[in-house]
Specification:
CATH class of the largest domain: Alpha Beta
Oligomer: single chain
CATH architecture of the largest domain: Alpha-Beta Complex
Strand content: 5-15%
Helix content: 55-70%
CATH topology of the largest domain: Spore Coat Polysaccharide Biosynthesis Protein SpsA, Chain A
Length: 382
């Protein structure tokens, strides 16, 4: 079988007949061997009966959720190429030829772009059209370099092989985001075509919850972006904190009266920024390895670098080195204070060195114990 058209449905008795008929007509017009699958997500009306009577293959999906319905429908498909869209007639199944042609060109995932097509009056809430979808799309492109124009378009096409490779799991509306992220991570060939959006004809409230589902999309992107969530903010905080500590220490070495509006105690604030940043970076490394161990991440450069260079013994040695540097600083301060074996430092420099000593001791302990944590992911991988 060449083409399967999947229609997830929940209480769509007013529109499912229109969608199934249009889908069957498209299969006929494309002159392909095809099927229409309605993934019924627990409808309490006659949705399933109507679809079955019209010749669609109906599968029952007991676990509630848009993503679950789509996944089960895609699993049940026998076609080499798969096209999916909603059952409310907001997408016209007679307009799938562009998606099908893109697949035939060799693209593995094809996404519709409603902003390049026509959006009927009342078909998309203004907050979705001018804020929600553009903002989420921009973040997706920034984090994953996908370069698409519409993250939430419900009409999509893919090869059966691509669907199986993506290992889709999410059950809610964030399924749309998961598909794009995993396609990007798998280096699938992603295409885009203009897509028209029409006002749905169900006459009922939308299944989409603007704020809840919007947050689910954003949360999923953040969870799949440990570099943006952890590494970049952590490195920035670390840089600011370290730079501040160095500047204040040089100030106290040259002339404590310089930069008079910044008190000496502010070096403690810089130390806290540095330590917090370092810990956030460690969280980021752990998140990368967790993603790798759970097969969420496929070919991430950060994960590959960590895997190829990290060893528990190396981490422990670095941690001990940092720890003993901190202890050495405290030893220097004690000897210089109570004997004449080392140069006597002024109170400003003694305070600054004590802060550096605390920082190295904390870094050493964090590094050593974090190395044991990271090693647990390697046990799973091996």
């Amino acid at each position: 079988m060449e083409l399967s058209i999947i229609i997830p449905a929940l209480n769509e008795e007013k529109t499912v007949a229109i969608c199934v008929q249009k889908a069957l007509k498209s299969i006929q017009d494309l002159h392909v061997d095809g099927e229409v699958i309605v993934a019924d997500n627990g409808s309490e009306d006659s949705t399933a009966a109507i679809a079955k009577n019209l010749g669609a293959k109906v599968i029952s999906v007991s676990t509630k959720g848009y993503g679950f319905a789509c996944i089960e429908g895609l699993k049940a498909a026998s076609g080499k190429y798969l096209i999916m869209a909603d059952a409310d007639d907001s997408y016209n199944f007679e307009e799938i030829e562009h998606f099908f042609a893109k697949l035939k060109e060799g693209y593995e995932l094809v996404v519709g772009n409603r902003f390049k097509g026509k959006i009927a009056k009342g078909a998309m809430p203004l907050i979705h059209r001018y804020f929600g979808t553009p903002a989420l799309t921009w973040l997706l492109n920034l984090f994953f370099h996908i370069n698409i124009g519409d993250i939430n378009c419900g009409m999509r096409a893919m090869t059966k092989k691509a669907f199986e490779e993506m290992l889709l799991m999410t059950g809610g509306m964030e399924f749309a985001t998961e598909m794009l992220i995993k396609a990007s991570l798998r280096k699938l060939k992603i295409g885009e075509v203009p897509c028209n959006l029409y006002a749905d004809k169900r006459g009922a409230s939308s299944h989409l919850n603007t704020w809840v589902d919007g947050w689910k999309h954003l949360r999923f992107m953040l969870l799949f972006s440990p570099s943006w969530v952890f590494l970049f903010p952590g490195l920035l905080l670390s840089f600011i904190g370290l730079l501040g500590m160095i500047i204040l220490t040089l100030r106290d070495l040259i002339s404590p009266s310089m930069i008079w509006f910044i008190d000496q105690k502010h070096i403690i604030s810089c130390m806290l920024l540095l330590i917090c940043g370092y810990q956030i970076v460690q969280f980021g490394i752990s998140a990368h390895l967790f993603s790798y161990s759970k097969y969420f991440d496929y070919k991430n450069r950060v994960s590959n670098y960590i895997i190829s260079h990290f060893k528990l013994e190396k981490g422990i040695m670095i941690g001990l080195l940092l720890f003993f540097i901190g202890v050495g600083i405290f030893g220097y301060l004690l000897i210089s204070c109570f004997s004449h074996l080392l140069p006597h430092l002024n109170n400003f420099l003694r305070f600054d060195l004590a802060i550096f000593g605390v920082t190295f001791v904390v870094f050493g302990m964090q590094t050593a114990f974090a190395s044991f944590l990271l090693s647990t992911f390697f046990i799973k991988i091996k």
